[in-house]
Predict the structure.
Amino acid sequence: MWKINKKIEFLTTFGIMIFLVFSLFTIPVSSGEDIAEFEAPIEPISPEDGAYDVITSPELTVEVQHPENKTMNVIFWNATEDADYQIGNKTGVESGERVNLTWEGLDYGTTYEWYVEIEEIDEGETRTSDIWSFTTEHIPNKVREPLSPEDGATGITLNPDLEVNVSHPEGEDMWVIFYGGEKEEDKSYLGERKVPDGGTATITWKDLNYETTYEWYVILEEDVEEDPDFTTSETWTFTTETEKEIFELTINIDGEGTVEVDEEEVQDGWREAYEEGTEVAIEAIPFEGWRFEEWTGDYTGTEETIVIEMDDDKYLTAHFEEEVVVEEYELTINIDGEGTVEVDEEEVQDGWREIFEEGTDVTLKAISAEGWRFEEWTGTEETSEEITITMDQNKSITAHFEEVVVVDTYELTVKIEGEGTVNIDPDRDEYEEGTEVALTAEPNEGWKFVEWTGDYEGTEKEIIITMEDDKEITAHFDHSPSIRDRIEQEIREIPGFTSALLFFAAIFAVLIHNKKTNKK
């Protein structure tokens, strides 16, 4: 019994080992990456699923993939209700390749459904995609979205412009008919417009109510006499704005001019009511001979054109001021010699010109160059180097500069011997070469001028000398005896009695002379 159990145990162990070895050779070993399943495309390339306004001969496009890069056949199927048939196929398609097939002869304005079937060429396995759809273009093309107002828009004015863009697959003209309200029940005719292919139709829906939601749509109809095709748009909505406060704008005019409000001329005292938030363009226009000065009131500024927002009652006054005609005159500056001129502290060149208003004061300054000196102005009576002129007429003013010439100078020394004075004209410390100097000798009482000595010799009381070198001149004065002294001298020279008589006669004569002199 023990041997039998051992044998059974051995056979069992051996069988398990054989099974494990067999498993190693029969079970595929994973490479660490899962092999993707073979699947049909999830979405088409074109037309996109649910597309509108597709042409009547669309190109169906899909991209196929195979995880093992096997070659496939692609079959395109029509899945439209009551019309399940093969559209066409493509064979020998490689993995990653895009497949195209044109679906011919479709009807306008029709929704079509389709799908693809992918078949492995080697194994024969197939995969089927989801069903996709598209709608062909209408005659005329159906309007999907409005231009204005956008579907669902809010805050729309009470007189909105309804606007749509339209097209026709064959380029024909169309009538665009606008309706307000629901299509079947409470619709109201708003108007119609004839437009070409690719054109825009616009109509104004007037007198709507505040804070109200409105519905509208359009019908496009071919412009043909018999059996015109037509399409109806979706129904769109918009909601009008909240009721706003009304504010009044008042315009006043001071002076000679006019005011335009939103390009419309208004008069002094003009008034108009506006909704809250309205922007108003206002322009001040002066009359001839006047100029705009400023705005006052609820707006202040000097701009002629302004834009204000009506957030309250507003009062504005446009002020115009009469223009004063001011004469203008030209100032011309010329320069003679070497130097410059500054006009109101700005250096100018020879021939400079500028216009000034009448009454303007202008400061001129003459600046001489090195080795030159300012001599004079001409064209004005002013004489100093810096002057101020008043522009009361056209003026041409010249600054004259003179070259400085270096001249030798000499000293004149006048000495006096005796009692007297010398008058020197001109009397200077130094004299330029060639200067003429007048000397006049004046003796004191009882003295007489005798002569000049030194660098001038002569007996004339008044002389003129020319300075060609340093000069030293002496004026000589001599004492002059009185009448009495001269008589006494002469008497002493006469002898005896005659001498005595003459002596007394002389004394008598002197007395008479002195008496006359005292009377004078």
Confidence is low (pLDDT under 50) at residues 1-5, 19-35. The helical segments are 2-26, 483-492, 496-519. The first strand starts at residue 51 and ends at 54. DSSP finds three helices and 40 strands in the chain.
